[in-house]
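#structure-requests
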Amino acid sequence: MAFRIFERLFVIAFLLLSMQVAVGLTSPDETEDDPTVAVGQVHVLHAVLEVGVDLCGVLLIVLRWRRMLHAVRAVWPLVGLVGLAALSTAWSAQPDITFRRSALLVLTTVLAIYLGERYSIEEQARLLAHTFCLMISAIFILYFLAPGYVIDHGSHPGAWKGLSAHKNSLGEYMAIAVLLLLLVRFSQFRWLRYVFLVAATVLLLLSQSAASVVCCAVFIAAMPLWRSAQLRGKQRLALCAMAVSFLFAGLCFMATSSDRLLHLLGRNATLTGRTQLWPAIGHAIMNRPILGYGYDTFWINSGGEALGIRAGAGWLVHLADNGFLDLGLSLGLLGVSLFFLIFALSFRNGIGYLKLESGSLGLWPISYFCFFLLHNVTESTLLARGGFSCLLFVALTTGLALRSKEVLADVAVDTFYGDFEFFPTHPEIPSGFTTADDILRDLGTE
């Protein structure tokens, strides 16, 4: 019992650290336009806490090393992408930095795989919901005690950044919290879910993060469409027709009123200068199209391609503000292709999970996957080392891959043996083997 509590406390601490809570608390005036962010300024408290949590995570992994090996095999494309990031040290212009950053990526990815292996999708969702509730409570308490820590006084005066380093980070986390709290169910004090759902929505709006607001709204509206996977016949056809009609109406509205919509969100047609920046970044990717410039080092350079992009933009660019472009800069088209392969496999497993899970929580994986994909059009969290969004993607991908494998194993056993629950003394079932995985392993098919 005590060990289980320790594990859950580790998960909550790991998730909070991945949301940069320590950085937000120790550097309340740091803004997203601060150039020190680009070169990876070290925060002592955050580093100490991160080392402590990572050591606990390594201990837990060692205790479950056999299951971890099984989980790593189940998500081999994901392991391949992270391995490519580590290998990029060989062709990076700054190999020492690439080595350190890719090593951190490998470690945090393994810890995220541990979460996906250790906890089911349902357990992951509840642990994540508890973490968000804790974070939301702390934000409002801190607002009354020391509002300077939760409100941005730098480049976006008045916007809330909560316990995060930047307002856009808070917006991203609260958008995910809204999606999750719409779907998860509390086992006790069920009314609290609605209180925290309202609080998360308020914080999302106070963050003034337009991308997070839009992504959250889009995927709340899309939830009925995902529901169609659980329906049959005429019900599915009617729901799909309704969803397509709403989608068409939404596209028409955006085509005719995009300027007014962007103005309402406090943005312009260039997405705060992003669209003017992206062509130059695309040109830089084409100069090294296959393998890129090395993991997470392109923007560190003060000269070369990065200098040309900054000179053209007229300001100190430290990110592409597009996860796909930043991944292309780091690992080239090979890295981007690997990511889309991983996403396609994960989404397929998410659809399979939705078909088997009749409750509302069945919508959670594909809703998050789609949010993660769309949000990276204007933010760079696709393969961020130790980043919350990336870790959550890895944990869900692992959980779904293992669940899919279990389902296939059960189908294979039922096909070979029949329903052995009703034939427990079947002569071909080895003694002491009671699960599908045990039987398939004995058959040599595991």
